[in-house]
Structures are given as structure tokens and as C-alpha cells.
UniProtKB/TrEMBL annotation, chain A:
This is GPI-anchor transamidase. One of its GO terms (cellular component) is GPI-anchor transamidase complex. Gene3D superfamilies: 3.40.50.1460. Pathway: Glycolipid biosynthesis; glycosylphosphatidylinositol-anchor biosynthesis. It comes from Gonapodya prolifera (strain JEL478).
UniProtKB/TrEMBL annotation, chain B:
It comes from Gonapodya prolifera (strain JEL478). This is GPI transamidase component PIG-S. It is found in: Endoplasmic reticulum membrane. It comes from the Eukaryota. One of its GO terms (cellular component) is GPI-anchor transamidase complex.
Amino acid sequence: MELPLLLFILVPFFLVSTTAGSQLAASQADRFFSSSGHTNNWAVLVDTSRYWFNYRHSANTLSMYRTVKRLGIPDSNIILMLADDVACNPRNDAPGSVFNTHERHRLDLYGENIEVDYRGYEVTVENFIRVLTGRHDPSVPRSKRLLTDDRSNVLVYMTGHGGDEFLKFQDNEEISSWDIADAFEQMWEKRRYHEILFMVDTCQANTLYERFYSPNILSVGSSRKGESSYSYHIDMDLGVHVIDRFTFFNLEVLERVTPGSQYTLADLFSTYDPVPIASHPGIRSELSRPLEVALITDFFGAVQNVEITRDGCAIRGNRTSLSEAATEQGKSEPGHVEAAAKPVNVNLSATHRHPNLDPRVRELKPVAETELVSYRFVGLMMIAGVAIRMAVNIERKQESEARPRMKRA
Amino acid sequence: MVAVLQRLKGWIQRLRGRNSAIDVVAVKESVDETSSELITIASIWIVILVVGVPWWWATTRVYRASLPFDDIFDLAEEGRLDVSFAIDVTLHTVPGLARDDFALHVSDATKQLMDQNLVSDIPLVYTNGSVPPPHTKLAVSVHFDSADHIGALDEAAADPLDITNSSLVGKYHLYVLNSAENSVGHGDVTIGSGRDIVVYLEDPSDESQVLRYASWILSSIFSEERRSLRRVVSEEDRSTQEHDMIKMLPYAPNYNVIISLINADPNTSLISWDIGSLLEAHVRPLLSSLSSISTFSVQSQVQYHSGATVTPTRQRDSADTSFVLRPSDLRNFINSAEWLLSSAVSADPPINFLLYVPPESQRPLRICDSDDRVVPRNAFLIPRWGGVVVLNPKLDAFGTERTDADDLKTHFETLAEHLRQLLGIQRIELNQAMRPASLTMRATSLGNTDTGITGFEFDRLLRKRIVQNLVNAARTLHSLGTLVQSMPNMVVQDSISVQIKDALRSIKQTQDLLSQTTLPVTLSASRSASLALTSAESAFFDPTMVSKLYFPDEHRLAIYTPFFVPAAVSLFAGSFKILKRYRSRNLSKIKME
């Protein structure tokens, strides 16, 4: 009795056996991993200045936000801190928009697709340190946390008003270079980063990174000790400067970078010219790997590691073992799938199958010839109505323009 | 109180009297006055010194709960975290070989081979002063089962394979069978779906053959496991390209699996997916069997009208036109700006799976490898993130593009494989490169089609997570200890101390459980190791642990000066004046006398 049963069990084993070895060998060629060894990218972008006249600091930060987002870092991996809401400032004559050039309406940095994580009074030294060290109140949502691991490359960009070894937050407190250095050390201790690119655009910015002592940190600053960093464009309508020089010249290069490009940080830094920047940018790279092998997209983008899949894992749903498992794991019952899908604010849940239920999709019906005539008639009438209305408006406007002139006289 | 008021009244009267009347009593009165002024000043000083200073000291003191620093820094001692896992192998051979001394032989030979492999092992690297990576030992012991061997194999095969049963963890079976009787080749090895290995030999009663095969197979499997345990704990992995470590998600007690169907062009193709039953059939069994390590919540969503960011290359074959994505395109495939993949609902780390339906103008879309060959699975994995499957719908009889259940079944199998790799489940293979030439062998590793994870794989994952959590908990505690000591301004609440003690207790408990000789404790050890990590992390990431880090003495001076200097100036000046007057009075008294 034993032998036939044994054969029955073991014969399928042989059918599978031939493929396993070759798949193992092939899998080595299917891996396309970054040379730096990171798997995910994060960005912490901080504008520390309040008040309307510091418009340019918001614009600096938002320009960086647009750049990293264009290069592939998702909003969930960007912590954006804006100390003031210049887009909605009453003095902004383009409400809801922020521009970084004097040529208006070229690129709205604020736009519709933006996620500001910390705004206004939330931008404090304490919150910045909390973001870096990961020490939050339990109620703080995931989107406001820096959930990095030992394979994360982090871009930290800061801009504001600073001085010798400090950066001012909100015009009433300041962060010192020791604070930032200690926070980075705590991150390193807890394996919260793989590499950090610290970029700062403020007066005497190079003093801010002098205290760093943790490994794998690359730092760039806009100006030496004793030097100021200057602004670039002024917008005459807004009456304020709209971008700083150092950030502007960085963006000039970054605009040419595409998600797959092979430019290195050495290429970026070689473009720095102290004459147009009006200060001497500093680079500190002795804590990190050489600049020539660090790609710009290792920090400003999210080029993912991929591995091509050749194998599947076939599971024959076994009823009995499933029911046993279900009692064991009451927490994730099958019903949970649909229940959990509902709160996601994305279009549809699992039950929502037909695309026509999506409001953005319209079903196209063929239109009959007779209907077409009536449609055309309605359309013509509407155009005529609009034309009449416009004519009346123009007339009224002329009248109303004439009236005040008479009053003033 | 009344007495004080009367005293005050008296002073005021005297002060008034001093201005109006100048007479003989004046001298005597001024002596009184001076002494009362002295009393006033002295009493103010007494209040300052007795009440003020301690009050100020107590209220500005940084509260620091006492932490068990000794225990924390003990964790950094070499060998403090070493663990040993008991591996219990039951050998099933022909009855003639079933002797205890032969089992001991196999056991010794296995150990010897494992020690040989140790020489070529991965070096353990770590930062000086931090917690050193522990040495993990897999103590293999081999013995015989008294029962008839073939009967036992039947039983093992017929059992519903409940691989997560705690009493089975760490107990393996090695069957030596006759190759001719089973009409298979000599030296064929099958690693089963539970915790059993079968090896077929021409002569299963040949003692030296059985010894060589059995010991090599066992040492190969467990050497590989020990190597993976070393990779987990060695700090070196931060810089090296250890691919399995890059792929494996960091441990979390709960994960959030998000399965998204991205339909770039819903006008031309309708995708119906019965996600509930697909999950139930292809993913749930795997997730359920892992529930003793981590739990999973699964969400699904469908998104329309946004395609991938990369444009595929058009390729015209003789037969048809297709579009291909090369590996370099895949690296920027995810359209993170338009696809909403992160969930704000859950605080657990997400695992993303995408089924991507390309727009009609880019179909059929195929994924190529670096040699430009089409990959049949049409899928790729993104380490520590998730997996992507490209789905090309077929035209049905009505001219609408649809996907059928079979297609989706294949894709969900791919997805299950992605999940296995992301969670760190390693397929059990025999390392053929290390095999001595004298052993002919052809090995097959059989997956488990019931749950997607075999008993061997489950145990390996369990042990890997135990060691990883134990070391991470110890490292977290150690850095917390260093942090608290290096920052004297940091407030340390009692709750931190409690959590640290909990973590230390759990670490100890894990080690105690593992040092027990009875086997079924591995699962509870895993639970307490995960508890140790959770407590240590919640202590480290406690929101109260943020203080203004850099607070030098000049800042302190700047804060206290406006408070204390104005009061101190008048106080010191007054005391000085009165002392001076008192002394001159005494002098004049002496002179008068």
C-alpha cells in the first residue's frame, strides 16, 4: 500500500526539479540595483522665514519641492515645511500662486497638487528636530513623519535667515549647527539613513555644516562665514524678491536633469560660479563617498532598484487549512478587505468594478441624425445669446467709464 | 501675622518720627533702627537661601528617572546576546542502521562540516563601542525514530501541513530511501513542503554512504542558514550590496498590504477583478501562516486615467508590434506624482502591489531583461517597496478587452512570490558549489502549494527575525543609553525607565526561552523578541525625549540675568550699606566710650 502512494507524492517533485537550478543562475542577471546601495529617497525641505518680504524663501523651498517631485520622490516621502503661507497672503496679487521668476505665469510653484506637511507656526526648531529624530506624538499622521530606514537617502534642504552657526526659525528662535549635527548623529545611531545631502541657502551657510560628525553626510552651503547670500530676481508687481541666487543657479542645472540621467554631484558643484552667485558656496564631502560617483538622482530623485521576476508562487487554496487560519487570525478576515478599502480617498473600493462609475469617464453614445439638428439649433441659440449679452456689457461698461470721469471733473 | 503687622506699624512710626524729632534719644533710636534693618536684611537673605535657592533648584532641575545603565551597557559585551537554536533531526533509514551510535556519527560529521564552512564565513563587522553582532549557533542533533521509516513518511505526507504549529518548529525529518524501488536516480534529494527531506540512494543500508549524504545535506542547509543569520546582524550590510538584505523589509509587527489596479485607459478595456476571492485563494494562505510573526491588513483600490511616467520602446517583429520596457525604464516606472499609493489611514508600513494596465496605444506591453528577452511573467520587484505586474488584456468575443481569471491567477502567483521575497522568505536550496565531487546529487526544493511557505522556510524566517529583533532591540537600548548620558539637559520620564526595563526583561526572556532544551518555545521566543524591539523603540522614539539639544552656559546666563540682576543689585547694595553703617556705628560707639 505504501509504494504507490509514495510514487504518487514523489513523481511531481521530479517534474519541477529541472527548472529550479537554471532560474537561480539567471536571477543574478535580473537585478538592477543602485550603485549607492539605497532603496528609497526622502526629502526634508524647510523654509524657516515668516513675513511677506521673505517670499523668496518660500519660493526657494517650493522650487526644490517641484524639482524632487518631478524627479520621482512621492509626496509621502517629502516633508515640506513652510513657515509662512505667502500664496494666500493678502498682498499676493496672484492669490494662491507662488512664482520664482519675474516672468509671471510661467510656472506656478504652488499649484493644485501640493502637500505642505508643516505650515506657519508649526515650523519650529522642535518640530524640525522631531521630524529628524522621529520622536512624535502618537497622533501625528504618517505623512508628517520621516519614516526612513538604513537604506534611505535623505535630502535636507533649508533656507532662511542665518548667521554664524545658526539658522533663524520664525523670527523668534534659532537652530544651531550643534543641534543639527546631534540630530543627524541620533539618526545614524538608530540607522535612520543611508546617506544625507544637506543643502542650505542662507547667510554664512557654510558654518552650519561644520559641526557634523556622523558618517555619510554630504553638505553644501551657499556662502562662507562672514558672507551674505543674496537674492536674485525681483518682481515689481509683488514688490519682493522671488528667489535666491544660490538656489536659482542650482535649479538651472537641476532643470536639465531627467529621472534617468547620469549627472553626478561633481557636475552640479562644478557649475557654481562665485561671481553670479555673489558668495562662495562651500562643499564638505569628507564624511561621504566621492562626489564623482554620487548621482544627482541619488538624492534629488527616486530611481528605484528593480529585480525582474521570473518565478511565481502557486498557492492552491486549501479550504480546510484556510478555515483553520481564519480562526487563528481573526484580525484580517476576508471581509476586512472591503471594509479597509473604503476610507482610502482614492477613487474606488474593491466592490467598485465598472469604470463607468468613475465620474471622469463618460459613456459615448451614438447620436441620431435628427437629434443632431436639434443639438445644433440649441448651440446656435446659445452662441447668439452670449453675443447679445456681451454687446450689452460693452455698452454698459462704456457708460460706467464715462460717468466717473464726469464726477472727477 | 498680627505680630508682623504690629511690627511693621512700629517701623513706619519710627521712620516718621525720625524726620520730625531730633533729640537725645536719636542716637539710641538709630542704634535700634540699624539693628532692625540688619534683621530685615538678614531675614531676606535667610528667605533667599532657605526657601528661594532650593525652590529654584527644584523647579529648574532636569528630571531624570534612574535608568538601568549597567544592564544597558552590558548588552555591548561580547557574547552577551549569543543565542543557540536547537535543531532536532530525526533520521529515518532502513532498520539495520537505526543505532544510536550511528546517529551520533551523523551528528558529529554534520557539526564538523559546519565548522569547516565557518572558516569561509562572512566577517562580522560593527562600529566600535556599539553592540557587537552575536554569534548564533544552530545545534544540530540527530536521532532515530523507533517507528518504521516508510510509515512515518506516509504520515508526514498525509498530514494537513500545518507549518506554523509550534510543536513542529525546529523538528526535521531526513528519510533515506532506495532509489531503485522508487524508480529515481541515485543521489536525488527532495526538500519537501513541510520539514522533511528525502534522499534516494542505491544502497540505503550502506553505512558510509548514508553518513556522507546525510551529514552533507544537513550541514549544507544549516550552514546556509547560519550565513543568513550573520548577514542579518552584521553592520557591514549598510555599505555592501547584499541583495537579500536590501530586498527584505524591516521588521514590523503589522504591515499594510495595498493592492492597486492601475487602468491607464478604461475607455477601451474593462478589467474585472474579483479581488476578494483572488486574495483569498492566492495571498491569504501565505499571510495567515505568517500571522505568528507579523499580521497584515489588506486594502485594494482601482485607479483610472494615469499611466506610467516612462514611454516604452516600440518593437516591430515579423508577427506583431509590441512595446517593451527595458530594465533602465523600469527604474523610473512608478508615477508617484499621479498614483495615490500611500494610505493615510494606517500607521503600519505599506507593501505596494500594482497591476498596471497600459493604454491601448502601448499594448501589448512587455518587460525585457538586460539581454532583450521578454520575461514571461511580465513583472518586476522593487526592493522594500513592493511589486509591479504589467497586464495586457485580451480581446473577447464582443470586441471588448477583458482579462480572464486565469491571467489574474498567474499575476497573483507572481504577487505572492513578491510578497515572499519582501518578507525575507528564502527558498531552501542545497549549495551545489560546495558539494564534494564524490557525491552525486540532484536536488529539488519543493514549494508548499497549500500555504506558499514550507516548514523549513518558516523556521528559517522565524529564527532570522528572532536574531534580528534581539540585536535591534539591544542596539536601540544601547544608543538610547549613550544618548541620555551624553545629553545632561534631556528630561527622562519614569515611563522611559519602565519601557527600558520591559525591553531588557523581554531580551532576557527570549534568551531563557531559547536556552531551554524543550523545543516548542521558538514561537514564544519570537514573540518576546518582537516585544523587546517594540518596547525599546517606543522608549527611543518617545515624544518627551526631545529637548533643546544645544544649550550652552552663555544661553543660561542670558536667561537668568534679566530676572536676577535687578533684584540682586539692590539686595547686595543694601546689605553692603547697612553692614558699613553698623560697623561705623560700632566704631563710633567705641570712640564715645
